[in-house]
Amino acid sequence: MAELARAGKLREALAISERYVKPGTRDADFLRNCAVLEKQLGNAGAALHWALAAEAITTHPDTLMIIARGDMRAGRTDASVDRCQKILQADPDHLPALLLLAEALESAVRTDQAWQVLEQLRAHAPRMDALMLVRAEHMRAAVLVHQGHYAQAIELLDRAVLSSTDHQPQLRRSWFLRAKACDRVQRYDEAFASATKANALQHASFEPDLYQQAVEQLMHFWTRDAMAHFPTSECGSEVPVFIAGMPRSGTSLLDQVIDAHSQAAGVGEVKGIEQFAMQLEQGSNLNLPAPECFGLVRDRAFKNAAQAYLLMCNKLAPGAKCVVNKALSNNRILGLVARLFPRTRIIHSLRDPRDVAVSCFMGGFNSNNYPWTSRIDWIASAWTQSQRLMQHWKHQLDLPILDAHYEQVVTDPDTEFPRIITFLGLEWQEGCARFYQSKRTVRTLSYDQVNRPLYATSVNRWQHYEKFLASVQWPAYP
């Protein structure tokens, strides 16, 4: 296994390890090697699984690093910082841990501390490889953006990052960061050009007509008449709440406002129901009537899925009366949500499609999951299909669905915030208006926005980029 890994044959090494692994093994070295191999192959979830198993036996910097990065991705920045500091207590010159510590602090918008770590890292520049140097300079630019030093950040990116590497994932992140900095100093043409370069590096593929057909197939399958024969969990819990809407439509803001309530919690983008939906889709035969179309998946499976989700909610937010899930796929699975949680509530987050388009295009989404974010016209098409789906659910489901328009939420929070809280069956609390004081880190592209007081400058942001949007036929928006 080790020889194959040293030779760069990572998949072969991993295959051998999987062949000989035994359930419940206590071989920490073996588990750690599995974690490192999965990390090198880009399998973050599997790497975290093996790292946690190894770390439960004995601690090691390699596994602590994997777990710390997993914590940061999940928004547990305090935990990520603690693990990095544990590594550095044993080895103050552990450069990857220093860099990850800076990244975790920047994610938590603890910019002064992040800058101090980056200055410490700078002293070790001669020991750093080329990519690590570039990553460190990118982080310095990110901190400068947080601090409002936009022109300095742009100069640093141009000088020390964008001209210093051909590593495409890093280039993509840095072009998006440059787009943000240029936008903040009103260099809008440069901002759009930088975002265009970043999106071009994704090589995304998207077919609007096929996407529309998929939505129509979904709407044809999940109808009121058909769902009357679908399996159901008969779950009576009102704890699960779902926010549905396009990315960058205000879902993170709503999540934070609700999470600020003492009897509610936002858990971000939880994937449990989405995974169950994928299992259903893979095992379904749409040519058969319900419930035969679901094969062997019947009421018991739905009950188990609902119970598993409720247990996860209780683990993440013990005692909460409302637990809010804002996964970006929620608008596609509300039919399933209704069969799992007949007493749930849905908040539909809406925003002007032109503002959504600009924000998505300049945001840096995962092109595998959201390829349509890399072109303005594709975003307009996806927005249209999202609204079609939501109108479908409003007519076909017996669920309360509340529309929350981003523009109204940010310009009239005194009305909108209490309206949203009341919709959830909770009494209004003034703390919800101070959502930005929460120490909770939101792992979303808008993480540096929902952790500061409410502002309305993003309303009609599209007007700065009007000439780049002119060729697109935009759907009507209230």
What does this structure look like?
The structure is a single chain. The chain has 2 domains: 2-200, Tetratricopeptide repeat domain (Serine Threonine Protein Phosphatase 5, Tetratricopeptide repeat); 208-469, Rossmann fold, CATH 3.40.50.300. 56% of the residues lie in helices and 5% in strands. The chain is built from 23 helices and 5 strands. A 5-stranded parallel β-sheet has the order 2-3-1-4-5, with helices on both faces. The protein starts with a helix and ends in a 9-residue tail after the last helix.
Query: Please, what is the average pLDDT?
Result: 90
Report the radius of gyration as a whole number of Å: 23 Å
CATH topology of the largest domain: Rossmann fold
- Give the uncertain stretches in residue-range form: none
Protein structure class: mainly alpha
Q: Roughly what fraction of the amino acids lie in strands?
A: 5-15%
Q: Can you tell me the CATH class of the largest domain? A: Alpha Beta
Please render the helix and strand layout as text:
Blueprint: H1 2-6, H2 10-20, H3 28-40, H4 44-55, H5 61-73, H6 77-90, H7 95-107, H8 111-122, H9 130-146, H10 150-160, H11 168-184, H12 188-200, H13 208-221, H14 224-227, E1 240-245, H15 251-259, E2 264-266, H16 272-283, H17 299-316, E3 322-325, H18 334-340, E4 345-350, H19 353-361, H20 376-396, E5 401-405, H21 406-411, H22 413-423, H23 466-469
Key attributes of the depicted protein:
five-stranded parallel β-sheet, 478 residues, 23 helices, Rossmann fold, Serine Threonine Protein Phosphatase 5, Tetratricopeptide repeat
